[in-house]
Amino acid sequence: MLFSCVQKPSAKTVSVHVGVEVPKENTLSEFEPRIAGYFEEITAISLTVTNSNGQKVYEDSTTNKISPSFRFELPSAGTYTFTVEGKRSDNTRVFTGQTTSEIRAGQSNTVSIVGEFVKDKIEAIFEIDKTVWERYNIQSTQFSFKKESESNWQIENLNFTTSNLTKTIQNLVPTMYDVKFSISLVGKDQYVVPQTWTAEVDRKISVEPDKVTKVKFKVVFDNELKVVVETLSIDLPYVEGVRNFRGIWDRNSNTLTLTWEYDNSEAIFKIYKRISDYGGNYYFEEVGTTQDKTYVISNFTLDEYNRIDGIAINTIVNKKESGFVVLEKTDLEQR
pTM score, two decimals? Predict the structure, then answer.
């Protein structure tokens, strides 16, 4: 379907030709069919033009995914920003591109935009089964990841304060990734068998444009200790997140009272503490779950305030998720 805002040429209008270079991935031969699949998912490539004041002056779209281009008139010469987006039918984006150009009167104006795949993230979830958590102490845990095409692993040490931990790795280029989880346990007393246990598991996962890739590592005891791995690529948000999210920190009682608004009475809310690392990624420590629209975190001391950088809620309705809605630490009210 092709649509456009057509403006009648006049003596003041200027002609513009916009060419779009679609993104490519040439380094992974096994991944090339999936790249082609991304473009099959695109239903339209849109162009939006804004002037130096940020006002939209032109928009158009095309279904030509091989060599998309646009020819049109702008009302006058000047500086304009040109933005393209290749979108799926659900409005998620496969690629984007943007450039700002000076458009001059009395000449041919050609603008080139280089598209890039939309980056997204891996959400790694780590769960320790209740039986394992009660019987063992964690000696060490690590999560490692790398592009399939690279050899150097990025290693993240994990610090469990509860039996559930979530870590996000952000701004990842869509391609295949290797992920690895390792853990060492020691029994809390001499009666625990086995007394020590070490495991390492790895998986290959794909990060796709505008989709969150989830990978869950769950340490369980099922006749023996083992790590169960689940992977899932999802579009977020499936459902709307919470609104008017507030937090009040009572420093006398060391409590953090959270409140929010949500319309669906069947919604389940999972509350997390968000902790940043030096690489710009985040840990999400699960605090609790409720169907109320308020939650109190106890033992919220000054040390805990300094340790975290925000509070997050993930809303779940009929097994669909909103993704994290984050209340920044700087936005917490204090009493």
Answer: 0.68
